Write a sequence for this structure.
């Protein structure tokens, strides 16, 4: 008989206690899936709402081993975890999704790029480099990316002239050809243990240049049906070739020639899928739970046009958080704020997001601009 996945007899452990884990817990509550979190921050967003919360390092072997001992299934909401401990837990009979060997590939951008190359998946030309001296030998312009440790726009530097290298990285990294593109797109694909696959509709992203963070996300993306189909096919190929169980975000560049190039992938719920809570039949967080628990995958159909705005800490403010203008945007129809329960803001820190829905994309864009101008993330002090 199949093991029950709901109720207090089943323990799902999540490595990471940030906003992704928090929204995963919110989705799990509808199914009585009990989630237990590990995070180094005692005030992490998951701490007050997880069924149990353990404060500890995600990269320490012994800490991860102890956390996993009494769990039936382990998953992640961040890639930077101790994969050797996860391998040992997997070998002991614990289920770990996404699988540890896949996490090792994805959290190293060099291995990621080599995976695309070896599987004939479309991506920008690149070269692996070991330090800043090798970076200085590359043909300018190029994109300099840290192999490991980058997140939320950190660890990526566009090198347009030699002086840009002064603020770049002296560490193992990749030099990627700077590709002219007209859109940045993203999709999310899920796969369960039975091999069932489901893909969310493509979204279009607009970035804040200074911090390299998503400023706006729009769904549906303004692309042809051929581009939509191609993006879904590539995402399906990636998750099949990885043999991965779970949810995978795939970010693309759409070139001037109307071809798709894979930028990066993430083996977890992703910033580019937050709108699915209000805009799709099933959210990315519920779909992740369905996939790792080997349940039927949900319908990913887009039921409303939508946009998502990241709420990030403004420059010049650090301290106890204040959401200025929040009540004003709550007066608008089809506007859904999500606050991540982070008590302290600092410049460019992700503090929440707002989803905007409407009957048409024109309506959504008008409301999104109004929301963007109305709400500010500042500090009380």
């Amino acid at each position: 008989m199949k093991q029950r996945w709901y109720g207090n007899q089943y323990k799902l452990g999540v490595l990471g206690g940030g906003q992704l884990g928090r929204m995963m817990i919110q989705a799990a509550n509808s199914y009585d899936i009990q989630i237990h979190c590990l995070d180094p921050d005692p005030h992490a967003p998951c701490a007050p709402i997880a069924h149990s919360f353990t404060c500890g390092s995600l990269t320490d072997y012994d800490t991860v081993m102890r956390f996993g001992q009494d769990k039936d299934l382990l998953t992640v909401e961040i890639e930077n975890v101790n994969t050797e401990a996860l391998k040992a837990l997997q070998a002991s009979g614990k289920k770990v999704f996404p699988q540890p060997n896949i996490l090792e590939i994805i959290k190293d951008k060099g291995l990621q790029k080599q995976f695309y190359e070896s599987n004939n998946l479309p991506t920008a030309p690149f070269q692996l480099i070991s330090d800043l001296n090798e970076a200085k030998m590359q043909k300018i312009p190029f994109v300099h990316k840290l192999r490991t440790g980058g997140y939320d726009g950190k660890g990526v530097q566009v090198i347009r002239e030699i002086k840009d290298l002064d603020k770049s990285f002296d560490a193992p990294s990749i030099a990627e050809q700077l590709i002219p593109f007209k859109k940045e797109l993203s999709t999310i694909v899920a796969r369960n243990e039975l091999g069932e696959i489901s893909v969310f509709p493509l979204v279009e992203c607009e970035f804040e240049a200074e911090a390299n963070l998503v400023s706006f996300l729009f769904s549906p993306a303004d692309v042809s049906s051929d581009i939509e189909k191609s993006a879904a096919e590539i995402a399906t190929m990636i998750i099949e070739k990885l043999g991965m169980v779970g949810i995978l975000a795939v970010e693309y560049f759409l070139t001037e020639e109307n071809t798709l190039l894979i930028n990066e992938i993430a083996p977890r719920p992703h910033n580019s899928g937050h709108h699915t809570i209000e805009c799709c039949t099933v959210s990315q967080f519920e779909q992740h739970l369905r996939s790792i628990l080997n349940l039927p995958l949900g319908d990913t159909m887009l039921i409303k046009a939508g946009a998502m705005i990241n709420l990030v800490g403004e420059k010049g403010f650090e301290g106890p958080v204040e959401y200025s203008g929040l009540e004003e945007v709550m007066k608008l129809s089809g506007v859904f704020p999500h606050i991540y329960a982070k008590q302290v803001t600092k410049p460019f820190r992700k503090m929440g997001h707002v989803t905007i829905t409407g009957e048409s994309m024109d309506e959504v864009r008008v409301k999104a601009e109004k929301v963007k101008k109305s709400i500010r993330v500042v500090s009380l002090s």
